[in-house]
Amino acid sequence: MSWEVVIGLEVHCQLNTDTKAFCGCSTTFGAEPNTQTCPVCLGMPGQLPVLNAVAVDKTILTGLAINAHINLESKFDRKNYFYPDLPKGYQISQFAVPIVEGGYIDIPTKDGGEKRLGVTRIHMEEDAGKSMHEGLDAVSHIDLNRSGVPLMEIVSEPDMRSADEAIAYLKQLHQLIRFLGVSDADMEKGQFRCDANVSVRRPGEPFGTRTEMKNMNSFRFIKQAIEFEVLRQIEIIEDGGAVVQESRLWDSVKSESRSMRSKEEAHDYRYFPEPDLPPLRVSQQDVDAIKAGMPELPGQLRKRFEIEYGLSSYDADVLTQTLETAAWYESLVAAHPADPKRCANWMANELLGRLNETGKDLAESPVSAARLATLLDRIGDNSVSGKAAKDVLDAMMESDDSADAIIEAKGLKQVSDSGAIDAIIKEVMAANPAQVEGYRGGKDKLMGFFVGQVMKASRGTANPGMVNQRLKELLKG
Amino acid sequence: MDIDVKKVAMLSRIRLTDEEATELGPQLSNIIGYVEQLGEIDTDGIAPTAHPHDAAMPLRANVVTNTNRREELQASAPKIESGLYVVPKVIE
Questions:
Q1: Which tops the pLDDT comparison, A130 or A382?
Q2: A418-475 maps to which CATH number?
Q3: Which residue in the set A26, A52, A139 is minimally distant from B89, CB to CB?
């Protein structure tokens, strides 16, 4: 009998506000330690928090983008937490009444359909500072620059049934958040991190006991951690044991997880209402205004690319992965408006492929949209064949020379002169009399052989359309 | 009401001797019992009160107003190294 996997995800996402959630300290990443702190985020006695208005707007915008309900009145609570990276001794969070409730994210399924995954809630809270232990004996070092940076915690329903679905949800959410501009969501900087609640059960039975994999910030590690945890739980149950509800930490070096017993003992958060903050009230007009300013979302942009530029859904998907990619494509189309599909092919397959191989991203591309457009112009006016153009692009990646200069220097200018092409064809026919006889005897498949030989003899410069046409003519005899 | 005084003390990071725990147990139970009288009040039809003042939360503009005051703010810390607070090892 098979096992069913049940996964729910909690995503902590840093909002990209200029200042912290409850004080006027800067949130700039990478500053000298403890230079962006004040009595409020240091938890000095008698200090009062005042919530950042933009953090509220960004959380509401995110809620609207997942079709959730916005609570016009929400509340803040204290979550007891005794670690030195949050010196107040508690985290200000929203427990009883979060600002956003309900909502969903649709992920693509293998059969080309969609699966709807529920979002339970999004609440606002503050980040903790950074603890460093490496190379230290008996002590830890604390940097509180991050203490008080605004976070959204996005909690899903336990709707995922595989690690792949969990990753699809996270990628969709990550892309959405970047499109909304509410967070930089740089996973390496910990601006988008995930806790995964994982359990297994026999299909149709109630949920099994879950464990929580804490604080992961790479799609690859999250997938590995979930898969490891599923196997671990199945093994325990099949051996007659019981899964213990606990928090676990993924060790990406050893590719295994371990129990976080230290955290378990103190797992009693004892939430209570934050007495320093009255209820947060927003008006329906404010919510409507935020909704009116909603930018184009990934799904809408993808649809627009399909309709406006006639792209396949695959190309539209590749070219709308990030706002930067989409903007690059649109500037390419602006520079080569004759053929948006050609723009898509060359950008998605040729340029992005080459950048990928060299580990560069689009922003570092040695070929700008304007330069690539001049090459596409030459393909369009038959000055260069598509095949030869790939060699030209290779050269453009290595130098600042124009497409025309490279075509000229490498002798790749496409030959569309029928006299010159006929001459090459005749040479090829003379060198392969047996094949000519075979073709004339009915072996039509030999056409491919002749096209290949002619293209080779012309070093790829012969216009393939004309080669086909002239070959048919001349081979008739 | 019976209270696990040792557990509450651990959660609050307060160190208690066995004698203190024994003494505090009945006292805490008394306090809880007193407060529990609130449960007898009929609150049907009354909206929950989130805050004693019926005020909405004022918000702050998203503008940096604090400058680097590290030296001053760290003056009272027991130990600093290269601008970092030094604390007993946090085991994870």
A1: A130
A2: 1.10.10.410
A3: A139
Q: Which residue of A has its CA nearest to B11?
A: A266
Interchain proximity B65–A277, CB inside 8 Å: no
CA B74 to chain centroid, in Å, comes to: 23
Task: List CB contacts (< 8 A) between A262 and chain B.
Answer: 91-92
Q: What is the pLDDT of residue A212?
A: 93
Distance from C-alpha of A202 to C-alpha of A408, rounded to nearest angstrom = 68
Q: Is A222 on the interface with B (CB under 8 A)?
A: no
Strands A69-70 and A211-216: unpaired
End-to-end CA distance of chain B: 35
Q: Say which amino acid occupies A157.
A: E
Q: Does CATH place domain B1-41 in 3.20.20?
A: no
> pLDDT tens digit string along A19-67?
999 999 999 999 999 999 999 999 999 999 999 999 999 999 999 999 9
**Chain B residues whose beta carbon lies within 8 Å of the beta carbon of residue A22:** 60
DSSP A22: S
Distance from CA of A280 to the nearest CA of B (A): 5
CA A238-A244-A245 angle, to 5 degrees, is 130
Residue A450, phi then psi, degrees to nearest 5: -65, -40
What would the pLDDT profile of B33-59 be if each residue is shown by its tens digit?
Answer: 999 999 999 999 988 777 777 788 999
- Rounded mean pLDDT, A72-77: 96
Average pLDDT, integer, range A413-442: 88
Q: Any chain B CB within 8 A of the CB of A119?
A: no
Question: So what's the pLDDT on residue A460?
Answer: 78
The strand pairing partners of A280, in sequence order, are: A74
- What stretch(es) of chain A map to CATH 1.10.10.410? 418-475
| A17 in contact with B, Cβ within 8 Å | yes
What's the pLDDT tens digit per position in A111-154? 888 999 999 999 999 999 999 988 888 999 999 999 999 999 99
Cβ contacts of residue A117 below 8 Å, gap of 6+? A104, A105, A106, A107, A156, A157, A159, A160, A165, A169
Kindly provide the ipTM of the predicted complex, given to two decimals: 0.89
